[in-house]
Design a protein that fits this description.
The protein has 266 residues and is of the alpha+beta class. It has two domains: 2-103 and 253-258, Aminopeptidase, CATH 3.40.630; 110-227, Gcn5-related N-acetyltransferase (GNAT) (Aminopeptidase, 3-Layer(aba) Sandwich). It has seven helices and eleven strands. An eleven-stranded mixed β-sheet has the order 1-2-3-4-11-5-10-9-8-7-6, sandwiched between helices. Strand 1 (24-27) and strand 2 (31-35) form a beta hairpin. It is globular, with a radius of gyration of 19 Å. It starts with a helix and ends in an 8-residue tail after the last strand.
Amino acid sequence: MGNDLRARYDDEERRRLRPAPGRWIDDDAHLTRVVGPTPHPLDHMIAHVRLAGADVDAVIAAEVDRVRRDRRGMQWNVYDDDAPPDLGARLARAGFREQARETVLVRPSGAAPTDDAAPPPGLTLRRLTHEAELADYFAVDEAVWGTGFTAWVRAWFVAALAGRADPVAIFVAYAGPAPVGCGWVTLPPRRTFAHLFGGTVLPAHRGRGVYRALVAARTRTARAAGLPWLVTDANAHSEPRLTRAGFTPIARRAEWVLDPPPADGP
């Protein structure tokens, strides 16, 4: 693994990442941004920094001015080895709040014993193929995480299912007819990493192997698509489970968010 894989991650998942449909990459000398059409912080997201020799506070202030002029929010992803080391503290002084801390985990997509995990008795796993089925995904996702990311994720799903974006595989676990777990994976062609997102199980169904089965299904799908590595961003709750499934940390990241101003504000 080592430095070569981390360098490839920085290149493909930060400098040259494939943004969600309807979003685009905007680069300058110091920053790589993902830019989109809405005020949501993910539609002005700093993915990669090159701040050596720069007036860092001036770069931050210029970004804040940019999004404030357009009445937008902003997310700045700060990795543990980003320079300067006090970048997070500088963002806090500029009005950002730390939203989350996550660990970037990877593993080869090649077969492992955990990849045979099937849903527990009484549950089934289905890969969604039609837009109408997305209601089942969001029934689980919104119950756990709320609706803050729904529109952003839905646009990605709809475009991918219609063939207007890189393919994704979306899975939902069912207890009878009721959706109880979900997760999805990106399948970008001619890339190294399949990215696992959204692994979620309703509280009443946790601890029964649903999450493990969702990881295994997405792993098999990535392997069949010819992607050699899996990558995911794990919170403190999911990291131990993913480590047991063979994932290894390569970086840690903090999400710093500048919220959009109120719609009726000055």
